[in-house]
Design a protein that fits this description.
It contains 5 helices and 7 strands; from the N terminus they run αββαββαβαβαβ. The strands form 2 sheets. The chain has a 5-stranded mixed sheet, sandwiched between helices. It has a two-stranded antiparallel ribbon with strand order 3-4. The chain binds zinc ion (2 copies).
Length: 140
Amino acid sequence: MSRKSWKEYFMDIALIVASRSTCDRAFVGCLLVNEDNRIVSTGYNGSIAGQPHCDEIGHTMRDGHCIATIHSEMNALLYCAKEGISVKDCRCFVTHYPCLNCTKALIQSGITAVYYHEAYRIDPYAEELFKRSRVHVEQV
Ligand SMILES: [Zn+2]
Ligand SMILES: [Zn+2]
């Protein structure tokens, strides 16, 4: 068996992380990885810690979106905010292309690259923002 590349290795882990999602509108998983190839944080789509999950009480819908859910990328970033962990120059591995809000948060946090698996609802403005901020974006 040939040895996995770092990209394959991290995306495989992101897919496992996604399996913990509690909002079944999208099973999404995310990793933040530093320059030493160490995982700094993980996140999946789910409710605020301590609040009921969509798989228990159903979705809270507004304008066709579940508003109870924190996206995996935000969960990964917010854990770092809570614990005081720098994500500057980290790379993001995420199972789905980030939405616009997550795109803005990732760029503003100093993420240098986004590796995504599924080309899910790619927002052209998100693509433009990544390009302008020179964030490397690649499908894995
Ligand atoms: Zn939900
Ligand atoms: Zn998002």
